[in-house]
Each structure stands twice: as structure tokens, then as C-alpha cells.
Amino acid sequence: AQRVTQPEKLLSVFKGAPVELKCNYSYSGSPELFWYVQYSRQRLQLLLRHISRESIKGFTADLNKGETSFHLKKPFAQEEDSAMYYCALSRGNAGNMLTFGGGTRLMVKP
Amino acid sequence: ETGVTQSPTHLIKTRGQQVTLRCSSQSGHNTVSWYQQALGQGPQFIFQYYREEENGRGNFPPRFSGLQFPNYSSELNVNALELDDSALYLCASSLMETQYFGPGTRLLVL
Q: What is the pLDDT of residue A93?
């Protein structure tokens, strides 16, 4: 069975500080991993996926199969990054049927 | 904005009743997934429909059922409601490898 763990419920940093949101997973197959974000009063939306190896809004995430991790990083946090972040694993073949972690609330203080 | 809508926004039911939640996907999105999000937790995958057939299911009992219609709308039906069914119910439609989430229906079971 697949599982996604986000060990921190809340992460509070000052503006300009580096941010790392942790995500660990367990999955017997080849994982497809995603980060979703939910800003205040907005719906859940895709931030990035590991396959794309892209940087979105300054965030990057590297899949580490040895450590079964997919941590989300940003070198300099901005106040507008404050949101709820969810790590998710897909057991489908098209980025769907997602298993989500419990989420981490990121608060960026001025 | 992707145009995934859900109705109603809020709903109150009593234990043992039945409920139907509705989702309208964007035209061309032939896959729809439903998720349950309890307070303070990440979304949990209920099931997925592709071209009007269920093609994936999470760890939910048979009293959770669904339908998908040719006009890209879908329903989630829950029979014999229990107190633990109180949650935010999200639908997500898929195009290619991206899931687009609706705003959710908040269900309270008393």
C-alpha cells in the first residue's frame, strides 16, 4: 500500500529565509509525485510534479528514491508563499488517484 | 480558473440519511475523481470514473457510490450516513496529467 507522510503540520519562517517542506513516501512501484498548494480561500491546485523537473514560483522538489523523499524547497520565502502544501503520490498512470499527505501549513512572517 | 464546480456548497444531514453531491467538470475532461477531506487532514481518494465507468477505488465501503454522465457531470452518493462522513468532499477532473479540483462540498452529519 502507498503512503505519504508530511512530518510537519506547521512551518513558520521569516521572509527571505530558506524553506524546506518535507515529504516521505512508501510505494512498491515507480512513484509519480506531486506537490499541491492551497492558498487562503482558493481551491487546491497543482504546484509541481517530479517528472517535469521544473521550478514553479521559485519552488523545486527532487525525488530521492534512496531516501523515499520528495522535499519541497525554496531558497528565499515570500509572504505570498503562505499556504497549505500537500505532497501527493499517484497510483494511476495519468497523475490521478492521488494519495495525499496530511499537509503542512507554511507561514511566512514579514 | 478551470471551471470545475460543485453543488451544494454546504449540506447538513442526519445519521442514516442518504446524500448526493454533484460535480460539473470542464468540457473534454473525461476523468473525474472524488476525494474526502476530514478536518485537519489531507484529501483521501474515494474513487475515479473514466468514460462513465469506475476505474479505481480507494478504501471506502460500497455505500459510497458514483455516477459519471456524458455531459462531464458526475455524482457522489453516500448511503446510510455516519457521523464520520462529516468532511469536505472534493471532485477533480483530469485533462492529460493534471487534476483540477473543485471548491468542495462541506457535509455535516448530525
A: 64
